Amino acid sequence: MLLTISTTHSPATDLGYLLHKHPDRCQTFDLSFGQAQVFYSEATVDRCTAVLLLEIDPVRLVRGKSGFSLDQYVNDRPYVASSFLSVAIAQIFGSALSGRSHDRPDLVTRAIPLKATLSMVPCRQGQNFLHQLFEPLGYTVKTTQHSLDEQFSEWGESRYFSVELDAKIQLKQLLSHLYVLIPVLDEDKHYWVGEEEIEKLLQHGDGWLATHPEKVQITRQYLKRERTLTQAALAQLIVEETPNLDVAEDTHNQEEADIEKSVSLNQQRLEMVTSTLKQCAVKRVIDLGCGEGNLLRVLAKDNFFEQITGIDVSYRSLETAQKRLDQLLLGSKQRERIQLMQGALTYRDRRWDGYEGATLIEVIEHLDLPRLAALERVVFEFSRPKVAIVTTPNVEYNVKFIALANGTLRHKDHRFEWTRQELQTWANRVGQEFGYTVRFEGIGSNDPIVGSPTQMAVFEQSVL
Ligand code: SAH
């Protein structure tokens, strides 16, 4: 099994500093499952190629195992890219994988032209899957499928491919992509997967897995289709991406086949809020506690909305929101409708007056209960939008989250989570005090006993 990594970055021999392997030497490493050699097939200023040759010892693999199965002796392990290659990458290129280079620290964080070739990759799902895995990460992917036997073309194609990946990327990113995706492709269950595999997946998937379109499939196959582990990993992946664990709701307790099809709860929430604003003919919206701009982005793309303002106390979140809005590449007229302001929801601010609609999406539970009274006055007494929409977790639903220990809240910054009755009691009291009628709806799949994962209260100013 061969993995080659080439660069044309000048001077190309800097690859040796990044990999911590000198281009003039051939080194041998003893691993628990065989031997690895690292050498360079070319090392010039213009082009440098490092080769990792992995020789897996099938006898070592079965040593110590009880029972006999032919499969232990006749298998593809010595010839294909498998999780052994990931182990070798971690052991032999560990510093490069974690982005450390003593001699070229600045080069570690630079995207440089890199090409990786893998001599033999198993892929049962066919070559499209190889493209679906690597292309979203920015690679140009070339694959060559191998026939079962060159001498007997009538036997047809095998499930093995040679793969070439090209990208301008950091070396540590390339290595972490290979580290995670090679075991995903190799469906052999020769190793035990446990909790520590989740940690490795999250560690090496950091920064790219949470947003990968195939993240569910990647997670599932990396964890060898162990459902509980997959659910736990997906829940954690989503926590890293957004502050709300309940986004993972759809992936819980569902048949495997459904997992890919699910629309995230976050998405459903945003759609529900947007359609409610439209039903109420609200064209000027202030999103209070806008965070990183999830709702703002949806509203920004919809020309129905004429003015969109986001408020948050966190400057960092606003910076991210700004960046993500910029990525939408809106025309200047569309862009003018949107503004971001820093502010605290517990203090009156006249800049927030005059909006038709205010939204508080997964925000109230971040306030200490005694501060909630201040927010009530700011929103319902002073700003007085025609419509206000509040969403918050339904704590009754928490029992359905496998990844959530009994009695814990969905996010460490949540000060409280309410039952449906608690939200209704609060909202009805606020409505009465400030002259709003209130209706309630669930968002996400509706369980007959515990209800939906998210609850929504829609306040509309009562007509006098
Ligand atoms: N509405 C967003 C973010 C929810 S997280 C979404 O659905 O994605 C809660 C947000 O409320 C955080 O961004 C936090 O900074 C903000 N927040 C919490 N307390 C606040 C306060 N007192 N004033 C303003 N923003 C606050």
From TrEMBL:
It is an enzyme of class 2 (transferase). Residues 1-237 form the Hen1 N-terminal domain. It comes from the Bacteria. Pfam families: Hen1_L (PF12623), Methyltransf_23 (PF13489). Keywords: Magnesium, Metal-binding, Methyltransferase, RNA-binding, RNA-mediated gene silencing, S-adenosyl-L-methionine, Transferase. Its EC number is 2.1.1.386. The keyword Metal-binding applies. It catalyses: small RNA 3'-end nucleotide + S-adenosyl-L-methionine = small RNA 3'-end 2'-O-methylnucleotide + S-adenosyl-L-homocysteine + H(+). One of its GO terms (molecular function) is small RNA 2'-O-methyltransferase activity. SUPFAM superfamilies: S-adenosyl-L-methionine-dependent methyltransferases. Its cofactor is Mg(2+). One of its GO terms (biological process) is RNA methylation. InterPro entries: 3'-RNA_MeTfrase_Hen1_bac, Hen1, Hen1_N, Hen1_N_sf, SAM-dependent_MTases_sf. PANTHER family: HEN1, SMALL RNA 2'-O-METHYLTRANSFERASE. NCBIfam families: bacter_Hen1. Belongs to the methyltransferase superfamily. HEN1 family. This is Small RNA 2'-O-methyltransferase.
